């Protein structure tokens, strides 16, 4: 017996209407739309766009992670680099600043090199440096683990790291040091003054501060793109990537294989780089969806760079301001959906904000808004020379126009080296350095190329500062890098502190070398499947000539005295 479809459907349709009526009453009456975060049946749904509670948590944790890595590097390496017996002691540096300003520690000296070390006892500089690094590690660990921060904690991290950067001299001369300080400065104003809560209801994330982060990532990427277009011709010829993987400061294993890619892949990489750095930054100003796309593309780009080389924590740090492009609706997938979770609490806050009248402004909120407006004016004022630099055909990169490094210029790889050269330090126990029978043995650094058979390292986001400076030193002469002679003297004495910066001491367990020299080599990647690769060699190297002649510890006595460096005591062990 055939049934009538519409007639049979009538009871079901009536049931649907009754259910819809109940849902309407729950939502505020018949015909009322469901509230934010509710689906038509009154159940919790996705987060609404336009709030940034979860964004702040992700951003602060990401920033705390970078601080943690930076302070970890400082704790492991500062004593050897700028400590009491470091390669460039910061005590001597501070004394030179003090003498320049007529021996006074006044405003001029402090503003030239802002650091809390001016207030501490210089007779135990190693302890001071360790204390700053350990305090930074402790505070950044707390923020990283809990996701809670206030202005006091974030300001503490900023002051501590600024104190190290401003006495770090050449070891802290990299662009990411200023970038971390600028990012960290903005992070101070993202938090409540005292409250330690992941969701401080009375202190919603400031749109001004979020735009400060977006302005930062805009300048970073656009500056990097413009310096390339105005710099090395190979960026305009699309040939820079033919050389980059092999000649970058500290290649990793992936760089070895990426270097072997076909020429058309390298052309595509260069075009993609120009698109991400010169076009994508403007997406920030084109509405929410394009801003989210900008953040996703920039983070993807930084991940690719992390995979392809050891660029310290630079790429990890560059991801941090990109997080400000995402709102809670975008980042909700990172958080669990349980009733006790942060995502659920933010959803409830959105519902309450949609239903209730806006709360009256409290005195603290008024003060906070005034502070954020003052921050906007300050950043705008300090951005004037930065923008003029971006527009200038003689653009300079990685430069600060103020001692606090609040707003800076950025850029990377404006020029690409077409061949890789390395300085190899060698020692010998022979009494006569010029004897043809002298056996010279290589010192190996932690990460930079040395032994052709050693696989390239993988250390990002960690950073070996000495390895990077050795890469720069290979472009110059030892006269431009006096610290390398200081290092040679310490190695002649088997100095334990200096040796801790290296991977291999060929004289371990025996008397130190009598002579030490620097040799200049040209390095190239071996070809996969070739005879050298089959023999286990990642690199081919060819001697160019001497970098500095053989020196003995006695030869360096006057040199050490002229620089007021302590003469290294010989350690036979």
From TrEMBL:
It is a multi-pass membrane protein. One of its GO terms (biological process) is protein maturation. It is found in: Endoplasmic reticulum membrane. This is Lipase maturation factor. Belongs to the lipase maturation factor family. It comes from the Eukaryota. InterPro entries: LMF (IPR009613), LMF1/2_C (IPR057433), LMF1/2_N (IPR057434). Involved in the maturation of specific proteins in the endoplasmic reticulum. Residues 172-331 form the Lipase maturation factor 1/2 N-terminal domain. Its main location: endoplasmic reticulum. Keywords: Endoplasmic reticulum, Membrane, Transmembrane, Transmembrane helix. GO terms for cellular component: endoplasmic reticulum membrane. Residues 1-40 are annotated as: Disordered. It comes from Vulpes vulpes. Residues 406-549 form the Lipase maturation factor 1/2 C-terminal domain. Pfam families: LMF1, LMF1_C. The chain crosses the membrane at residues 53-75, 132-160, 180-196, 208-227, 299-317, 370-391.
